[in-house]
């Protein structure tokens, strides 16, 4: 049997490392572009870009929101839906329908100060948490009382810190002083109407009190604090 002859082993070729030449995968232009860094912007340039972005944003005007304005009359609490631009005269008209009383006989108060019917809800800063007081006055309370016993009518003088701020009113002994306070406050600015208060014998007065309850006499002076 013939013997198989093994082929001679292959000789490995040893390359000289110095003879290896590196070949770039990318061209010089591509390599330079890969090494480029993003351009740095200065604070002034970035601020300018932000301002340009913000300048293109416009805020649309928000529509007025309706809310219930609470008004207390005697023991009842009424809710009148209003807008910030609604004048108080419109509130008085709605109360007039609910109460069956003419608008001239209704008086709106906040902290015992009369509110002007020409002022708007927004101008007075009224909100959903506020509660106004509504006073229903008798027909004769707006005018100088006439008829009846002369002793039932007295004159009271409302005097402020300024001597020029002095007015005299005629009122029945059994009539609430709210009508007098309202007539006096109507000549004050809106800001002053919010702060005004009336005092007699060192005590703060309520618009529902009467001269008879306070034991007032003809010619007594009510102090006005603003």
Description:
The structure is a single chain. The chain is of the alpha+beta class. Among the domains are: 67-136, Phosphatidylinositol 3-kinase Catalytic Subunit, Chain A, domain 1 (Ubiquitin-like (UB roll), Roll), CATH 3.10.20.90; 141-225, Roll (Ubiquitin-like (UB roll)). It is built from five helices and ten strands. It has helices at residues 28-34, 43-55, 88-99, 178-185, 190-195, and strands spanning 67-73, 76-82, 106-110, 113-114, 131-136, 153-159, 166-172, 197-200, 203-204, 221-225. The longest helix is centred in the first third of the chain and has 13 residues, at 43-55. The chain is rod-shaped, with a radius of gyration of 44 Å. It starts with 27 loop residues before the first helix and ends with a strand.
Q: Which percent range fits the helix content?
A: 10-25%
CATH H-level superfamily title of the domain at 141-225: Phosphatidylinositol 3-kinase Catalytic Subunit, Chain A, domain 1
Ranges where pLDDT stays below 50 over 5 or more residues in a row are 56-60, 140-148
Query: Strand percentage, roughly?
Result: 15-25%
Main β-sheet description: 5 strands, mixed
Strand order of the largest sheet: 2-1-5-3-4
By secondary-structure content and strand pairing, the structural class works out as alpha+beta
CATH architecture descriptor name of the domain at 141-225: Roll
Query: What is the number of helices?
Result: 5
CATH class bucket of the domain at 141-225: Alpha Beta
Using only C-alpha atoms, the radius of gyration works out to 44 Å
Distance between the termini: 138 Å
Mean pLDDT: 76
Number of strands: 10
So what's the overall shape? rod-shaped
CATH fold name of the domain at 141-225, please? Ubiquitin-like (UB roll)
Task: Write down the secondary-structure element order.
Answer: HHEEHEEEEEHHEEE
């Amino acid at each position: 049997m013939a013997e198989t002859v093994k082929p001679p082993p292959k000789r490995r070729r040893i390359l000289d490392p110095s003879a290896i030449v590196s070949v770039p995968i990318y061209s010089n232009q591509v390599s330079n572009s890969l090494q480029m860094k993003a351009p740095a912007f200065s604070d002034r340039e970035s601020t300018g870009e932000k301002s340009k972005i913000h300048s293109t944003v416009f805020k649309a005007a928000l529509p007025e929101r309706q809310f219930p304005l609470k008004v207390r009359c005697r023991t009842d609490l009424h809710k009148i839906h209003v807008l910030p631009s609604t004048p108080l005269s419109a509130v008085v008209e709605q109360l007039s329908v609910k109460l069956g009383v003419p608008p001239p006989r209704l008086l709106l108060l906040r902290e015992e100060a009369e509110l002007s019917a020409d002022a708007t809800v927004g101008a007075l800063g009224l909100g959903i948490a506020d509660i106004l007081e509504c006073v229903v006055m008798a027909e004769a309370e707006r005018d100088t009382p006439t008829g009846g016993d002369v002793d039932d009518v007295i004159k009271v003088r409302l005097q402020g810190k300024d001597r020029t701020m002095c007015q005299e009113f005629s009122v029945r002994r059994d009539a609430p002083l709210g009508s007098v306070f309202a007539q006096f406050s109507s000549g004050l600015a809106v800001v002053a109407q919010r702060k005004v208060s009336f005092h007699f014998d060192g005590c703060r007065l309520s618009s529902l009190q009467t001269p008879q309850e306070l034991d007032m006499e003809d010619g007594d002076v009510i102090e006005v604090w603003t």
